[in-house]
């Protein structure tokens, strides 16, 4: 296939950045989207031009490191991670616009790489169960109903990629946060810190510059792990409960 | 005894031994060691600085635990978040001797299976301890909220993994590694929030600082600003994972590397058993030259899929559905009637390679060869129905389709072996301390628990055992004698390390040759796979060493790294890693060459039984090969640690 790539280039956080057009030939449909960028980069280096910076690591759809906007869609036209998107989703002659995640809470570092440290800081503020090493009771001491365990698991599948934020017109991090709150909130172990968790996480979320949720649902549609919108309702329920308890 | 062929490639040094394990029966050894280890008063812990490089299962769990204990921890990883460490990709499960199924499992049995699975090349004492603390791991993870699979009664479920007769593998669908890592990551983030751990994401360790013979810090590069930083501490922990990416194509993440270990090796840490690589038989084959990595397909597929290739080469291009039964060679069923498609990983892998080398491989031609064999579910679909197969393997079938564009319900899958896991690593004693005092090594980065092979589900166990339970106890003994004398950033050893890093970066950026870093990496990978992969010969290894040497020479003369040092520069990052792989690759070949026996994943063509099976030589090779760096223009030095098996009896293996 022959394609025309329009890629966001930005030398650093201070640079204004802009779109540069690169024609590319010999793209095979077996390539993943990132392998296609690898091939482009090899060509650029051969020509003495600096390669395009983009993040990736596992290339298996599980580490959450990759992620770009492709023709305006987070991770591109299919519901998967960018590394698992393959070129057979495109046609010969296509023009593809490739940009970094867009959100105030994700400042651009260079080209397609952004800083998602804000997601880690949300977890730091309370996205855990406090259990010091070495004092845990036997794992069978607390049975967990299978339905609860399954729901916890579904929410725990979030890979922290940030596509939900990038897809949201408000750049809200609610799906990511709701997933964690749901995961931990389904377990008996997660109950003692349940109120404190939702209060501190939501406070941190706002402080980081993420927007509020207006129920548009773009996040869940873009999520490569299919995290459902109802984790946000669960989080809002927890928030209400926690503020009542506080009052 | 040294054959002339090997002369000049290495020297033999003094034997080495582990002196840290207490001389008591194996069942009480760990309790005794914990008791003997000196204590550190809680108020003194704050004054002690520990650097932990790596935030995978081993590093994140160690960081969280040492942070909780009150030490001053600095944690490093090259990704943008500690949650992305490569442990996240592990699919299958984690072993633990819980005996929840009441099927006769015990610490001893897990220890026995692990040692046997390692072909008796791991250290008995360490392996026993691994089995001993395994049960605590599950308790710890459940308390943190790791969503392991459960049964309807609310209790934890188990599955059985290849090669054992008990059901001891805990799992979280196909995402066990992810869930375990997120648990450890959350515990780590909690400490970061509490201020006991300071996290340096997007930082890469490029040098170890050794002062007066002790590990005292690291030089790291801030991968965003390019700043070269000095971090000093009382002890350094490396939990930097495996080096499978020396093969370029592997199931490892793109950034996996050997740099941290290799830099420590060059500063005096011994590197043990480098040639032991585990090859996984069921990966999606290479589809073309552009390929950047290989994807693992769970081994559970071999329970129902039948593996075959066409009997005749002429049929290899045909649509597999048009090849009649009588023209198919179900070679595993033919060669190993009692195990069939369920033979161990190394056998399944080697036979697939043999079929392709004979010219009977299937799928696209990559280079001169087709590298793939069929894994066929037609019979299973006929027997169980498509719905049942979908329920069992649906997600794997979808993943296969996503990557290859072929529907495995209609046409057989194609699979091929791929490099997966490395059992070699920095040599450590029972305390996980390297040959440099103050340097500790945890998880896949050390060599101790796996020997020459690996059963599934034991690497995750080792990472968490080391990080949560072993290291925090043993490092305590070392730290109790600290805080060590403060060092100045102007100390000659620090300046030397900084200069070395800056010099290397300047050199790489200054060469401005014709070839990209990736092209060197691919070529190295090709050499390693051909000659130091599943099957090795004296001649091939010898050739590989020559090829690697000239490739390395060309690299330093002709690599092209664009861009600057003081910005995010991914080519520069890669170049530094490939430079270290080019040195490690040679050592792997020397190690493989000197070990004239077949052992686990290491099949030496000269050492096989009459019917072509791996033949170990316990009389000659019952030792760990621990290599010391010999200097830039000098050969490495082999120190042998003899392996003593007291709790377990040595046996040859047979899968016929
Ligand atoms: C696809 C796949 C499936 C697997 N499935 C299983 C399974 O089912 N069961 C099982 O038991 N095992 C499995 N394994 C093996 C297991 O996942 C690994 O052995 C284990 O997770 C390694 O953990 P670790 O903590 O030692 O290292 P890793 O998780 O690899 O972590 C390495 C860390 O070091 C950091 N790092 C590395 N170099 C540097 C540097 N120079 N500077 C700074 N930071 C650095 C990285 O950023 C990372 O944080 C699998 C492996 C693969 C590849
Ligand atoms: S909720 Fe989905 S889109 Fe958002 S970070 Fe998690 S996996 Fe990515
Ligand atoms: S690179 Fe890991 S999810 Fe894409």
From TrEMBL, chain A:
Pfam families: Fer2_3 (PF13085), Fer4_8 (PF13183). Keywords: 2Fe-2S, 3Fe-4S, 4Fe-4S, Iron, Iron-sulfur, Metal-binding, Oxidoreductase, Tricarboxylic acid cycle. Its cofactor is [4Fe-4S] cluster; [2Fe-2S] cluster; [3Fe-4S] cluster. SUPFAM superfamilies: 2Fe-2S ferredoxin-like, alpha-helical ferredoxin. Signal peptide: none annotated. Transmembrane segments: none annotated. Residues 149-180 form the 4Fe-4S ferredoxin-type domain. InterPro entries: 2Fe-2S_ferredoxin-like_sf, 2Fe2S_fd_BS, 4Fe4S_Fe-S-bd, 4Fe4S_Fe_S_CS, Beta-grasp_dom_sf, Helical_ferredxn, SDH/FRD_Iron-Sulfur, Succ_DH/fum_Rdtase_Fe-S. The keyword 4Fe-4S applies. Its EC number is 1.3.5.1. It is an enzyme of class 1 (oxidoreductase). PANTHER family: SUCCINATE DEHYDROGENASE, SUCCINATE DEHYDROGENASE IRON-SULFUR PROTEIN. Belongs to the succinate dehydrogenase/fumarate reductase iron-sulfur protein family. This is succinate dehydrogenase. It comes from Ornithinimicrobium faecis. The lineage of its organism: Bacteria, Bacillati, Actinomycetota, Actinomycetes, Micrococcales.
UniProtKB/TrEMBL annotation, chain B:
This is Fumarate reductase/succinate dehydrogenase flavoprotein subunit. Residues 49-460 form the FAD-dependent oxidoreductase 2 FAD-binding domain. SUPFAM superfamilies: FAD/NAD(P)-binding domain, Succinate dehydrogenase/fumarate reductase flavoprotein C-terminal domain, Succinate dehydrogenase/fumarate reductase flavoprotein, catalytic domain. It comes from Ornithinimicrobium faecis. The keyword Transmembrane helix does not apply. NCBIfam families: PRK07573.1, sdhA_Bsu. Residues 521-655 form the Fumarate reductase/succinate dehydrogenase flavoprotein-like C-terminal domain. InterPro entries: FAD-dep_OxRdtase_2_FAD-bd (IPR003953), FAD/NAD-bd_sf (IPR036188), Fum_R/Succ_DH_flav-like_C_sf (IPR037099), Fum_Rdtase/Succ_DH_flav-like_C (IPR015939), SdhA/FrdA/AprA (IPR030664), Succ_DH/Fum_Rdt_flav_su (IPR011280), Succ_DH/fumarate_Rdtase_cat_sf (IPR027477). Keywords: Flavoprotein, Oxidoreductase.
